[in-house]
Design brief:
This protein is mostly helical. The protein contains 41 helices and no strands. The protein is globular.
């Protein structure tokens, strides 16, 4: 009997029994209805694998190597395979990769889940040393599995190094051709191009030049991109003058890719030059010229040349035929015209979107913005008519709820509370998914607020309870909880008690079968599913046990393609978190899952919330919060929402680190609190956290120690927030938040306040107490 998942899933203290060292592993097949425990990715406490991993993680490679070699002789087969892998890792870290080859070879010959990856690592290491052997071994691994692509690349490159270009070149060409055009395909493309360039054949030289340029244009700031650029220039310079002239320009696709990278990097001058060059080149295909002109207009707008950008985008929309380009060009022009105060021209562009591209996904957005502009120009009746008709005219549009909410908000501002209630009821009836997570429960919340203002206390309390039941820790549910607690404390307690008894729907949908309470006493487990029987899942678990996160992700991604099961995404997140990548697990959940937001973080569902909202960099954030006198949960919230707990994050605008601090702000705050300013100081988690927390303290102090306004000020600055507070004198926080004029700041504020409440709840079982009224500013 070969390896089964029973070995991989053995719980701590329940090691499977093996027959002999490096032999066949005899384990009983797992019970089909057994639960899967993500903790199995952790090495067993006190096991050789665990001890070796601990030394490697601490950077003590010599101790890890000595321990692994000593433990190998008496290890069970499953443990021996892990140790062979870790020994190879240790030798690689010491720069002695050749010494690790024997251990990879030994593992490759075992009946072990890591054997395939070991064989692939072994083959890759031999590409330049024993290329024929490497090619043959890699060829054995080109069937359907997570390592197939890497195996194909290794085989093709090895044949090239073995002096067999007739075998290698077709394989490398196939790999380059299969790579999506947005990527440079450097892994296969660079050796292919170098081979083609060496032949002296004109056609092959041109092919090599095209590959070099593809790599250079898709990865200009990387070492391989710079090398490709240098080799392309050298190859071009080596050609006869006539051919140099004919091949002087890269392809339009490469030029466009390079220009778009410059745009995303905020190098607007370079981007504008490149887009203008493409736009004026008559040899470029019309569709690419249109895209280049569209991007040129967008770049002008980003570079604060709104009028020029808008004019160019209007021209693009008039001349181009692609519906998507036309719609986006008109929409970009309209937004720029709107920001420039040319509202009538903006309305004309929004109307043109509806008329010329009525089935495009921007058509309802255009209707919404045209209506709002009419309202700003005093044409309220026309605005109301357009917003009211939007849900009917665009039954599949994502702006339906927004249109009805805007009508309700207008009605509330005019004290037409019954009308507001009707609009909110219509919005709720749509049951449309929110366009942003911070909008979950918005119409329900303001329905409750409106009922309360109408004096319908019983209906208002029931409506607040409905908001909480709908999405218990959403921004709006947190505000509803505050109000219900003040209005009807027994009812508020009853709502939470009911959720505690019935808060396991998301966990059930995920296949979660366990629970994690406040102390994490009971583990999160998952009901058995067919994907767990796949060899790739067993390989993923073993890869995580030896710390091979990237390879494990490949296996798990491959499984998701084979088994379209949303519950498997939760499994992936859980095992990644247990393996030490809690930030990656949270990002995965943020991209792929949202059903858990409708469940209270109690019982089994609590464990899912904890995966989505991990408490990372605890020492650094705790220290920063304590020094600055800022609520820890707020500091955690800002770190999660700003960087996703990525300490090396750098935004296109230049914000850096855990809490995304801009360098001027960082230097000023650092000097004030006595933190040394050194190169890269904002990428140090502890330093960044201290500066970010202190800045939160500073902006809160400006508003009378009101941390509820800190997120808005952190995003937009203190001066605009002070202006908004003065304009909303006497009104509650929730009204000000809805009226924040900057969409980015409005969404950010709700999201951070929501996340603050979530972290506070997960830590204490209660929500933070926010001020009931806005501060009075002199």
């Amino acid at each position: 009997m070969g390896w089964t998942l029973g070995a991989a899933l053995a719980l701590p203290g329940c090691a499977p029994r093996g027959e002999a060292l490096h032999g066949t592993i005899a384990t009983r097949p797992p019970e089909r209805r057994a639960a899967f425990d993500p903790r199995v990715v952790r090495p067993r406490p006190g096991s050789p694998t665990g001890e070796v991993r601990a030394h490697l993680d601490a950077g003590d490679v010599d101790a890890a190597l000595a321990l692994a070699i000593e433990a190998l002789s008496g290890a069970t087969p499953e443990e021996a395979g892990r140790l062979e892998w870790l020994i190879a890792d240790a030798y690689k870290r010491k720069g002695l990769w050749r010494k690790g080859l024997g251990h990879l070879d030994a593992l490759a010959k075992m009946d072990h889940p890591l054997a395939r990856w070991a064989r692939l690592r072994w083959a890759r290491s031999l590409e330049n040393v024993e290329p024929r052997i490497a090619a043959r071994e890699a060829a054995r691994l080109t069937d359907r599995w997570a390592g197939r692509w890497r195996a194909r690349v290794t085989e093709a490159r090895a044949w090239l190094y073995a002096g067999e270009p007739s075998v290698a070149v077709p394989k490398l060409r196939a790999l380059v051709a299969e790579t999506p055009s947005r990527y440079g395909a450097a892994t296969a493309g660079m050796p292919l191009a170098e081979q083609l360039a060496s032949t002296g054949d004109p056609h092959r030289e041109e092919e090599a030049l095209a590959i070099y340029r593809r790599v250079a244009s898709r990865a200009p700031a990387t070492e391989v991109g710079k090398r490709a650029e240098s080799l392309a220039k050298a190859l071009l310079d080596s050609l006869p003058p006539a051919r140099q002239e004919a091949l002087a320009k890269p392809s339009a696709e490469d030029r466009l890719a390079s220009a778009e990278l410059a745009y995303r990097a905020m190098r607007y001058g370079d981007a504008l030059d490149a887009f203008a060059d493409l736009s004026s080149d008559e040899d470029v295909a019309p569709d690419l010229r249109c895209r280049a002109q569209w991007m040129q207009g967008r770049t002008l707008i980003r570079a604060r040349e709104r009028e020029r950008g808008a004019a160019l985008l209007v021209d693009v929309a008039a001349r181009c035929r692609d519906e998507d380009t036309v719609a986006w060009a008109r929409y970009g022009a309209a937004r720029a015209l709107e920001d420039s105060g040319r509202r009538a021209e903006a309305r004309a562009q929004y109307l043109a979107i509806e008329r010329t591209t009525p089935h495009h996904r921007l058509a309802d957005d255009a209707r919404l913005r045209r209506a709002l502009l009419l309202g700003r120009d005093g044409q309220t009746a026309q605005m109301i008519a357009l917003l009211d008709s939007l849900p009917r005219d665009y039954p599949d549009g994502d702006m339906r709820e927004e249109a009805l909410f805007r009508l309700a908000w207008l009605a509330r501002s005019r004290y037409e509370l019954e009308a507001a209630l009707r609009y909110l009821d219509r919005a709720i009836a749509l049951d449309a998914p929110p366009t942003h997570e911070d909008l979950l429960g918005r119409a329900r919340y303001w329905r409750a607020r409106t009922l309360a203002e109408l004096g319908e206390d019983a209906r208002a309390n029931a409506a607040y309870a409905d908001v909480i039941a709908h999405a218990p820790l959403s921004y709006y549910a947190q505000r509803a909880s505050e109000r219900l607690e003040r209005r009807a404390p027994p009812m508020a307690r009853q709502v939470r008690a009911t959720q505690a008894r019935a808060g396991d729907g998301a966990a059930a949908a995920a296949g979660a079968a366990g629970a994690t309470g406040a102390g994490g006493a009971t583990p999160l487990t998952f009901a058995w599913r067919s994907a767990f029987d796949a060899p790739g899942f067993t390989r993923a678990i073993e890869l995580l046990r030896v710390g091979a996160l990237q390879r494990a992700r490949k296996e798990l991604d491959d499984l998701e393609q084979r088994f379209p099961d949303q519950g498997l995404v939760w499994v992936t997140a859980a095992v990644l978190s247990e393996a030490g990548d809690a930030a990656g697990a949270a990002r995965l959940i943020g991209r792929r899952l949202d059903g858990y937001r409708r469940e209270a973080p109690v019982g089994r569902a609590r464990a899912l919330w904890a995966l989505a909202y991990p408490r990372l960099f605890s020492a650094e954030l705790n220290d920063a919060a304590e020094r600055a006198g800022v609520p820890l949960a707020l500091v955690q919230a800002v770190a999660r929402e700003e960087s996703g707990f990525e300490p090396a994050a750098v935004s296109p605008a230049g914000a850096r680190g855990l809490m995304q601090v801009m360098r001027p702000t960082g230097r000023e705050v650092a000097r004030r609190i006595g933190v040394p300013v050194r190169p890269g100081f904002l990428l140090d988690p502890a330093t960044n956290a201290r500066i970010g927390a202190q800045y939160l303290r500073t902006v809160a102090d400006r508003f009378g120690d009101d941390f509820a306004l800190a997120p808005a000020a952190y995003n937009a600055g203190g001066t605009p927030v002070a202006r908004w507070v003065r304009a909303h004198r006497g009104e509650p926080l929730d009204v000000l938040v809805e009226d924040i004029p900057y969409a980015e700041t409005r969404h950010y504020t709700r999201r951070v306040l929501q996340t603050w409440g979530i972290y506070h709840w997960l830590a204490t079982g209660t929500l933070p107490q926010l001020p009931k009224a806005l501060p009075r500013l002199d």
